[in-house]
Amino acid sequence: MASPLPTPDLQHERDQRMLLWLVALGFFMQTLDATIVNTALPAMARSLGESPLRMQSVVVAYSLTMAMLIPATGWVADRFGTRRVYIGAIVLFVIGSVLCALAPSLTMLVAARVVQGAGGAMLLPVGRLVVLRTFPRERFLQAMSFVAIPGLVGPLIGPTLGGWLVEVASWHWIFLINVPVGVIGALATLRYMPAPAPVSTGRFDLAGYLLLAFGMVAISLALDGLSGLGLRQASVLLLMIFGLASLTAYWLHALRRPDPLFSPRLFRVGSLRIGLLGNLFSRLGSSCMPFLIPLLLQVSLGYSPAQAGMMMLPVVLASMSVKRITTPLIIRHGYRRVLTVNTLLVGLAMASFALVSPGQPLVLNILQLAVFGAVNSMQFTAMNTLTLKDLGPDTASSGNSLLSMVQMLAMGMGVAAAGAVLAAFTAHFGMDGVQTLQTFRATFVCMALITMASAAIFWQLDERDSAATAANREQDVEAG
């Protein structure tokens, strides 16, 4: 006897549930690949004949490409259709992953990471857009909370999985595992993602986009050029000047254009203005930690890749455990006090890694990592909710895209800055034994000071600034 066919309502509910799993899968791929590489960098360096202390370009290329393309994703999705763009993003991500695995040199690996980052840049924004258009407003936060869970699981298993794959196979497999996941995702997109009705799009602000993208790339390359690219000082200075000039030109361009990528009117909102600047400068310091810690553990303390990956678990577990207490703290003490104090605590937690030594008890290492994970997670949640909490319905989408771009830009620039500081101290201390440990210690202190300096930005918040909307926004930006 044939089983009864599902009713249209039941079938619609199943399709919506599968759509959420599909968007969650894309988010998982993106966040997993952002963290799985860090533990494998020393193995990559040995395979490609490079110094492990000069591998930051592999991380910078991915995050910088994402930052550069995020501003265009909304227009591209409207112009070509969300389903078509989402499939294209998955295919591009898989192609980039295969190219990464086949790369014979660091230069080719960095180029392949650019391709991979181009696909990754579209996965979450386009997926979020699909969810926004599919689910009614009263179910949107619940749907996005479901999608955000894999975004937390990716960093949880990424470093451990990366270290394990390096030991049992080779570093190439940290990219090749994306192939079957991507194939499943592309097929599921064809089956479960609705083909949307055409959306009218205005003219894309190409001039503004090129100015903004060039400015971000030039400044990031200038930082990376201080170490990894071997650029001469004059070239670094020129890149920095041209980058700053390009960003200034974008601002002037946006002031006179009726439909810019990001309207300067957004910055009339005080909480967004301080939130974005605080995000940028505090993440410049703290975003380098997933890059520096696995390097420290393997290069100076003799950990295996798998052991170094396991040591990142306390960071993520502590990060997840403090999510529930962050909003009550903000409501009780206000954004100004919480962010100012917590920014200093993040810096102190980072600086504490300057005290690490080969004979340090394992329990103390785990405690150090857990403390950093807890205060860093609280920092991200507070900064993100502050940035978006006062935006109206007409500016929420643009403000959220701007926040995503700043987050990825700060991540790339933070790793590039850490690589430059590492290179400077390597030239000063040398690369043998104790000298390498001294290099890491000095780098941790410098990056911690950068983070602590951003406390002055959060101090500019109005002490009476309402924290009542923190709970309403927290779920929407949980993945940041």
Descriptive overview:
- By secondary structure, this protein is mainly α.
- The chain folds into three domains: about 10-195, MFS general substrate transporter like domains (Growth Hormone, Chain: A); about 205-260, no CATH class; about 270-480, MFS general substrate transporter like domains (Growth Hormone, Chain: A).
- It is about 80% helix and about 0% strand.
- The chain has 19 helices and no strands.
- It has helices spanning about 10-50, 55-80, 80-100, 105-135, 135-170, 175, 180-190, 205-225, 235-255, 270-285, 290-300, 305-310, 315-320, 325-350, 360-390, 395-430, 435-455, 455-460, 470-475.
- α10 packs parallel to α16 and α16 (about 395-430) packs antiparallel against α17 (about 435-455).
- About 50% of the residues are buried.
Could you give me the name of the CATH homologous superfamily of the largest domain? MFS general substrate transporter like domains
Helix percent band: over 70%
CATH architecture of the largest domain: Up-down Bundle
SSE order, one letter for each helix or strand: HHHHHHHHHHHHHHHHHHH
Q: Report the end-to-end length measured between terminal Cα atoms.
A: 50 Å
Indicate the radius of gyration in whole angstroms: 22 Å
Largest sheet at a glance?
Answer: none
Number of helices in the DSSP assignment = 19
CATH class of the largest domain: Mainly Alpha
Provide mean pLDDT, rounded.
Answer: 82
Structural class assignment: mainly alpha
How many strand segments? 0
The proportion of strand residues reads under 5%
- CATH fold assignment of the largest domain: Growth Hormone, Chain: A
The total tally of domains equals 3
Q: Which runs of at least 5 residues are low in confidence (pLDDT < 50)?
A: 466-479
Organism: Roseateles saccharophilus (Pseudomonas saccharophila)
Protein name: EmrB/QacA subfamily drug resistance transporter
Domain Major facilitator superfamily (MFS) profile: 19-466
Transmembrane segments: 20-41, 53-73, 85-104, 110-131, 143-165, 171-192, 204-223, 235-255, 276-297, 303-322, 334-356, 362-382, 402-427, 439-459
